[in-house]
Structures are given as structure tokens and as C-alpha cells.
Amino acid sequence: MKTYKFKMYNHPWSRNGHGNGELHRTIDGHAHVWNHCVALQRRYYAIYGKYISKFRLMKHLSKLKKLTRFAHWNPLPSQAIQDVAARIDKGYKKMFKDRAEGKKCGRPRFKSRRKYKSFTLTQSGWKLLSDNQIRIGKRIYRYFKSREIQGTPKRCTVKRDALGDIYICVLTDYVEPDTIRTMTGNIAGFDFGLKRYLTGSNGHDIESPLFFKRSLNAIKRFNRRHSTKRKGSKNRERARLDLARKHRRPGLGTDIANQREDFHWKLAHQLTDKYDEIRLEDLNLQGMKALWGRKVSDLGFADFIKKLVYIASLKSVKITFIDRWYPSSKTCSVCGAVNESLNLRDRTWQCPSCHTQLDRDRNAAVNINRVGASTPSGEVVSSR
Ligand SMILES: [Zn+2]
């Protein structure tokens, strides 16, 4: 588990044109819920000599929310309200435990609005969007994204500090890697592909995950539709917007983004655990865009490389990039002959010179590995 803390933008900005006022109101609202619960518990205790259980309290709160008298609680996220009940329950449990052990411990107290600082959302009611945006409730906010978030987000706490600035604390399931690794003596070259994510020079292949294939299909569909429309036409623009919208659709788009992040980090760890040195082609994204369409950047090769280089630097694994102009696919890995007539569609080919039957990606990986071995250390990129 790892928590990331980010500061929210302070100036009023959002798609709907408002600032953090809503978040302040939500925190204030929770202060009210908290104090209401504390008062309730105290009254109940005075009458019955015991406290209300968490689940009864939760049920009671959801009932109150529906009453007109508590209409101002209605905009508060249900989960966060339940969280208040859980926190109060925790407070009482701690009190009982401490008192049983003979320690001094006060009961949960009333808190002034000024002292009340946060609310917490679990699975729903929030979503990390692309770039530095987060949706909380129905609104979208921006935060200072000082670092990449690793792992799957599980919980978000919106906090207010003494100055009235708002922060988000995102908890993920990420586990810090054990960065002390023992040398394995393994070195391999890898070729990036669309169907097979990585093809290893030594036969170590990484298949593309399902979500990746889904985005790949969307890209193909888009390219097909997009390219059949006349350039500059309204239909072409419509096709472009359609796809953009699909990617932005809450749920699909962000889920894919999260899954992709997850896949990237896991793969980066897997490879850096296994290899002392990893040789790759310096990706020519412009060239790939020309070949596969501009949406290829959605597949996140460049993002993966960034993460791999970062993890490798933590674990002292060497990442070597070979020159992007080296024809790794067209060169026969057996005799070195260059097949200029090789087409992108040729998945296998026979070397015109030595007649070896070659698998396109494997052949490229073998070449990358070999060229990487002789790449001068000055060109080696192993730091961030
Ligand atoms: Zn050959």
C-alpha cells in the first residue's frame, strides 16, 4: 500500500467553472455529520448505557439523508458519510480497548468546522482521469501531479490544511519494490510489437494483455473509419471526435488507463528482476505513427519505457538503446544481409542470401541484442 499526496489547484478552474468551494462545503458537511453522530452516541449512552453499533449508525445515517430536515446532507457522498460512522466506531472501540488496558483515553469529541479536516471516498464517487485531473462527485478538479501514481487506486481522502488549501491523498495497492537484486547473468534484447508486446531474443515473449488488444481494435477501427472520410470533411471530424469521446468515457477509458499502468509496472519489475541488461530499440514513435496511425501513442510504449528505465535505475539494471536507424527488422540475423523489400505485412520471411526462414519479430530481437552488445557505453541510457 502506498499513499500519494497531491495539492489541488487553488484558483477557480474546472470544466464547470468553479473552484474548490464544493470540496470545502463537503468537508464542512462531514463535520456536521460527525457532530450529529457524536451527539447521538452520547444521548444513547446516557439512556441505555451503551453505544450504537457501526451498522445501526450507518443505517440511521442513510435514513436521515432522505429527510427534508437533512436535505443539506444529500449532496454529500454516501460512502464518505458511512466512513464518518466507521471512524466514530473506531474511536469508541479504541476507547474501550485502552480503558480495558488501564490507559486513559477520551471518547470521540465534537469538532468545530475549522478543526474538521477531511472526508474519504472508497470505490466510488471519485476517479483519477488523464493528466492531472480527478473527478470528485460530479465535478472535475486539477491537482499538481508531482509524480506518477503506481498501482491501482483504492481510496481517496480529500484533506484541508490549516491554510484552507485542499489536498488529495490517493491510496494504492502498490508495494515498494525490493531494490536490492542479485545479478542473474541474463541479458536479452526485445522488440516491441502490436500483437506480441515484447519479443525476446532468447525466446522470452510477453503477450499483449486483453485490454491492450481492445484499444488496438479501437485504433484500427478508428483508422479505418477516419481514413475513409475525406480530409477536412465534417464526417472526418465527427469520426475523430467519436473516438476521442470513447477514450474519455468514464469507466472504459480510465479503466484501460489504470490496467495499462498496472501492466507496465508489473512488466518492468518482472524484466528487471530477470535481466542484468535489457537491450531495446530507441522507439521511433513518429515512424510508428506513420505506419500504424497516430493513435499508436495510446498503446503506451513510450510510457512503458519511461517506467522501465526508472525501475532499472533503482535496481541498477542496465538499459541499452540501439540506434533507431539500425534496420533491425530488415537485417538477417544469421548472415547480416539486408532485405530492402521487406514489407510491414511480412510476419515471416526467407533471407534471399542464406535462405534462412526468419520470424520477423524474433529476428529483430536477436539483432537488437547483438547490436546492443556493441553499442558504445556513451550511448547507454540507464538513468532517469
Ligand atoms: Zn541471411
Helices, strands, pairings?
Elements: E1 2-7, H1 21-48, H2 54-66, H3 78-100, E2 118-121, E3 126-128, E4 133-136, E5 139-142, E6 153-160, E7 166-172, E8 187-192, E9 196-200, E10 206-207, H4 210-228, H5 234-248, H6 252-274, E11 277-281, H7 285-292, H8 301-315, E12 318-322, E13 348-350, E14 357-359, H9 360-373
Parallel strand pairs: 8-11, 11-12
Antiparallel strand pairs: 1-7, 2-6, 3-4, 4-5, 6-7, 8-9, 9-10, 13-14
Bound molecules: zinc ion.
Residues 332, 334-335, 337, 351, 353-354, 356 line the site of zinc ion.
Distance between the termini: 24 Å
Helix content: 40-55%
Could you tell me the mean pLDDT? 83
Q: What's the number of helices?
A: 9
Structural class: alpha+beta
From the spread of the alpha carbons, the general shape counts as elongated
The major pleated sheet works out as: 5 strands, mixed
| Percentage of β-strand residues | 15-25%
Q: Could you tell me which ligands this complex binds, including any ions or cofactors? A: zinc ion
Q: Give the total of beta strands.
A: 14
Stretches where pLDDT falls below 50 for ≥5 residues? 13-17, 248-252, 378-384
| Order of secondary-structure elements | EHHHEEEEEEEEEHHHEHHEEEH
